[in-house]
Amino acid sequence: MTERKYNIQYYMVVPDLFSIINASLGFLSIIMISKGVIGFACQLMLLAVIFDSIDGWVARRIKREDDEGFGRNVDSLSDIISFGLAPAFFIYSTTSFRYINILVSLLIMTCGILRLSRFNVIANVKKSTFIGLPIPVMAVIVSSLYLSGIFNEYLNLTIAAFTSLIMISSVEYPKINTKKGTIIVILLILTILIGSNFKIFATTLLILAMAYVLIPLIRKF
Q1: What is the arithmetic mean of pLDDT over 176-201?
Q2: Which residue among 45, 101, 121, 161 is least crowded, i.e. fewest CB within 10 A of its CB?
Q3: CA separation for the pair 116, 220 (Å, rounded)
Q4: Nearest C-alpha neighbor of 138 from the set 96, 81, 182
Q5: H or E element, residue 158
Q6: 80, 220, 215, 202: which is closest to 151 by C-alpha?
Q7: Are the C-beta atoms of 91 and 30 separated by less than 8 Å?
Q8: Can you name the residues that pair with 129 across neighbouring β-strands?
Q9: What pLDDT is recorded for position 10?
Q10: Where does residue 11 fall: left (phi above 0), alpha (psi -120 to 50 degrees), or beta otherwise?
Q11: Percentage above 90 pLDDT, the chain
Q12: What pLDDT was estimated at residue 62?
């Protein structure tokens, strides 16, 4: 390996900056949860989802060549913070079932790590679908459950555990095209900006997320 390849500048390009912002938002979400500012923490998780989609979009636009896998690893490590650790800490902090909340939180984190590790291993296999539920959906579901006002400890624990297991399944999930992705980003922005006053946006987001989870699962079985 040449000395040039030891320099971080050799690897980093613009999409990686969006991945770092994604991770930063996830970390800030964890801090907000620890301070009891749950609504704002959920908004930060949803904002992280937006930046996660931007980094992929930018990478495709600039036709990034990532032969060493640097960008893929930065993206996955950022995702585990925002969509693995943050939702896990959210479940732990907002539910009072002793030990069960810890187990479900560990399940979220573990399945998230396994899901992203598998994604990196099979990344070079060109597929039109995702194998297993994409991890950002976890953050969308737990956040929209809270912001929609449909907050119930039993429901949250059950859905979080179920979603975790689907992440490491072999169920194939469709990749969202640019047009549909734009609509979802707009809905995410509306939920973040005015979702606390107009819960219809968070509720719609929750319905779409659950439909995305369940429809491929029903078709498979």
Answers
A1: 91
A2: 121
A3: 22
A4: 81
A5: helix 153-167
A6: 202
A7: no
A8: 174
A9: 74
A10: alpha
A11: 71
A12: 79
Distance of alpha carbon 154 from alpha carbon 7, whole angstroms: 49
Tokens of 201: 């946006």
- The amino acid present at 48, given as its one-letter code, is A
d(CA 183, CA 17): 24
> 3-state DSSP helix/strand/coil percent for the chain, to nearest 5?
75, 5, 25
46 phi, psi to nearest 5 deg: -65, -35
Task: Give the pLDDT confidence of 189-199 residue by residue, as tens digits.
Answer: 999 999 888 99
Structure token pair of residue 174: 């469709």
CA-to-CA dists, residue 189 to 45, 182, 197, angstroms: 12, 11, 14
- What pLDDT score does 61 carry? 81
Query: Which tens digit of pLDDT belongs to each residue from 31-82?
Result: 999 999 999 999 999 999 999 999 888 877 877 776 677 888 999 999 999 9
What is the phi/psi pair of residue 177, to 5°?
-75, 170
The first and second tokens of residue 171, run together, are: 């169920």
Structure tokens at 76: 């996955």
CATH code, residues 3-220: 1.20.120
pTM to 2 decimal places: 0.92
